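Lecture notes, structural biology module. Today: joint structure prediction for complexes of two components.
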Amino acid sequence: MSRYGMALDYKNCINCKACEVACKEENGVLLGADKHRIWVGANDVDGEWPLLDIVSATFMPSQCQQCEDAPCQSVCPTNATYYDENDVVRVDPDKCILCSYCMNACPYDARYVDDRTMTVDKCNFCSDTRLSRGDTTTACQNTCPTKVRTFGDLDDPESEISELLRTREHFSLKAHLGTKPKLYYLT
Amino acid sequence: MSETTKTAEAVQEQSFIAKAKEFVFTIPVNKVSIKDLRDFEKTPRNNFIAVLTLAFIAMFVVGVAIYLSQGHHAYNVTREHPWGLLIAVYIFFVVSSTGLCIVGSLGDVFGFKDYELIAKRAIFGSIVTILAGFAVIAFEIGHPVTMLIYNVLSPGLTSAIWWMGTLYGIYLTFMIIEFVFLLKNDMKMAKIFGLSGLLVGLAAHSNLGSVFGFLNARPISNGVFYPTYFILTAFITGIFIAFIIMGIRYKNVFPEAVKTMLTGLAKIQALLLSILIFFVTWKMLTDIYGGMPNRADVALHILGSWTFWAEVILAMLIPLIVILKDYGKSHVLLVWVSLAGMVGIFFMRYNLVHDTQLKPLQMMKIREYQLVPEWIHYFPSATEIMISLGGVGLCIAMYYVGSKVFNLDADH
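The predicted structure, tokenised, for the full assembly:
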């Protein structure tokens, strides 16, 4: 019984997209631009070539925010979306009816349709792959060359993520919506 | 348990079954053969409607066949715009159903004598329209059978879709029972089931509004507006359809009692349309005022779309002006205006679904060479259009068969 979360030192992101590849590989996410559990958002670089303002190029790696009060879970008519024992928001494909309400309700655009099962899928912190094999890291964290991501148990005061959240300023995306995300962006 | 008790129970059970059988077999229906169905006045207009209806049903069959072979790939829905035309058409049909239920209830539930003569027709119409809606949504929901199972086994009580679907199921049952009692001329029971059906229908329909109203992620839809607006627009839709079905029934030559009823309905419609215009005006103004991001920009975008103005002109302004011109006495003109009004109501539903999803939730580029996301574009695919028109075809066909099988006129 843990309460998993992730801290992102997003300013270290170099937009190499290794995390996107690792996620697809580990979790068998189908190819295709729309089929992704995680992504790296990029701001347009300001200025005209060759006078580009390189500092304005910022990257925002993102994924399902693993909300404590997840809108996608509340709106699911068959409870196909549920919180598992580690507080991870997951989808039970047997119960999903593909009404797509969760895709509309998620403020982070974190859900997509898996064409093999024709059900809605999302990031589940590698719960049914790496974590179920006893690993303690997610694929995206494991592969990141600049150590942007730190995954761990928020309830364990000794964990690296707890330490980071104690010592670093951080914010959450669209926190004003009351979703209480468990993804923290370190500043 | 003693033998005597067992026998008594068996006798009781048998008599209950016998009573139920008797009840069902005494429902007044006309025996209709295929030949009777082909037997209608062969005017050019009737022939046109017949051919159109058959063409729509053929499109439904083709559309469903494509969907069954290709799944959601046959639709133009995407990750960013997961709800498309079929959701809009489903809403269009269930709004029509709730509206007809309200119109039907005016006579047999609330006791307005003038409106009793449309009760049977309206209640039958409400059954037909919701069945057409279910037929369309069955091919939008990815797993309709799973839905039926897990709606019961694992109900999501915080989900507006769960409440909407479940309540509509109960509503349909009440409507069918009410219709049977109306056919049997048992007004007391019809009133009980009519009132129950109306209350459940209103609850279901406002829940459908809350499917959009509960979306915190979409400031343009979030709030109390849609759950209340859905009930108002349902009543308006019901009156539009009442004009159309009365126009078809009496071939636009109305007896005096029908004229009185239609004038009454037109006056109610004028009031409802005025309230709607008032609501929509203030919704737009509050959306734009203050320039709140994701709301003001979306509202301004909506104001610039022709589908919004199609909705305003066809479903609001023209009907209101025509009714106010002579206090709803131009019945024939109003039949045609109502037909155009239904086109406007279709755009109203389409806009509501599309506009909710207009604004991308991710405002950063997520792949190389992508342009910065601006507005989500959507245009329905041929399959979506075929299934939607098929729903209209099914609705007309079911209504036509019903008008032959049942006596839908008021008994005098």
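Point to remember: Residues 64 and 387 of chain B are 7 Å apart (CA to CA).
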